[in-house]
UniProtKB/TrEMBL annotation:
Function: Repressor of the lactose catabolism operon. Galactose-6-phosphate is the inducer.
Keyword Hydrolase in annotation: no
Organism: Amycolatopsis plumensis
InterPro entries in alphabetical order: Carb_Metab_HTH_regulators, DeoR-like_C, DeoR_HTH, NagB/RpiA_transferase-like, WH-like_DNA-bd_sf, WH_DNA-bd_sf
Signal peptide: none
Official protein name in the record: Lactose phosphotransferase system repressor
PANTHER family reported for this sequence: GLYCEROL-3-PHOSPHATE REGULON REPRESSOR (PTHR30363:SF4), HTH-TYPE TRANSCRIPTIONAL REGULATOR SRLR-RELATED (PTHR30363)
Pfam families to which the protein is assigned, alphabetical: DeoRC, HTH_DeoR
GO molecular function: DNA binding
Ranges of residues in domain HTH deoR-type: 3-58
Keyword terms: DNA-binding, Repressor, Transcription, Transcription regulation
Length: 253
């Protein structure tokens, strides 16, 4: 297959699936991974894709945010493992803040009934999980609810967060990297996440490996502002070293 044919195939695959995995395509086409990386470099310079860890994503998908049900099915096993590992960071008593996200929702389902916890959240799914849970004192932050993520955002939410200081905040992200920090496509949600970071003594980011290098429109924290990153073993050792150098302790689930 000629280079131009590979470029066309890769562009079509990126637009169809949203992402191209270097290893999968190299095996499919019977070429070296380095060849596919060079091809993706050409497409990136043409503005067709943006290269990320392990492959590339279509440019038109960078600001696309799937709804909760779709995101919940993506990397489900990894998210389950991350939530179980994050449980070790939940205090025996005190206050925690659970950001909106499918992994933070999984952590909510695992919170034990024998701990005295005050839980604050801007997430409708998290609130519904914890509303009748024994041992939990639940506070839900008000605001406009985004239909895509079912998260409360904007001024009402931000004003409430200004007056809080919680023991541990658990945050989600659409992308993270040593260079660009923690990012998300929506600026209103990013502002809330930044306020969550400011309102916590300890900040824990829960993000599976597929989000590494997938930098989005709006940064809500640099990695130096995150105390612990809990991700899964799909991320390679080189990336872990780079992330830890940027600030947080990295826990592999």
């Amino acid at each position: 297959m000629y280079a131009a044919e590979r470029h066309q195939l890769l562009a079509q695959r990126a637009r169809r699936d949203g992402r191209v995995d270097v290893g999968d395509v190299a095996a499919e086409l019977g070429v070296a991974p380095e060849t596919i990386r060079r091809d993706l470099g050409v497409l990136e310079r043409q503005g067709v894709v943006r290269r990320v860890y392990g492959g590339a994503v279509a440019v038109e998908r960078l600001d696309f945010e799937p709804e909760v049900a779709q995101r919940d099915q993506t990397n489900a096993a990894e998210k389950d493992a991350i939530a179980r590992a994050a449980l070790d960071l939940v205090p025996d008593r005190g206050s925690i803040l659970l950001d909106a996200g499918t992994t933070t929702s999984r952590l909510a389902t695992l919170l034990p009934a024998d701990r005295e916890l005050t839980v604050i959240t801007n997430s409708i799914p998290v609130a519904s999980i914890l509303a009748t849970r024994p041992g939990i004192t639940l506070h839900i932050l008000g605001g406009r609810v985004r239909g895509t993520t079912l998260a409360a955002v904007e001024a009402w939410t931000l004003r409430a967060l200004e007056g809080l200081l919680v023991d541990v905040a658990f945050l989600g992200a659409n992308g993270f990297s040593a260079e660009h920090g923690c990012t998300t496509p929506d600026m209103a949600e990013s502002a809330v996440k930044a306020a969550v970071v400011a309102a916590a003594r300890k900040r824990v980011l829960l993000a599976d490996h597929s989000k590494y290098g997938t930098d989005q429109l709006s940064r809500f924290a640099r990695l130096a502002e995150i105390d612990v990153l809990v991700t899964d073993s799909g991320i390679d050792a080189g990336a872990v070293a780079e992330l830890e150098e940027a600030g947080p302790e990295v826990v592999l689930a």
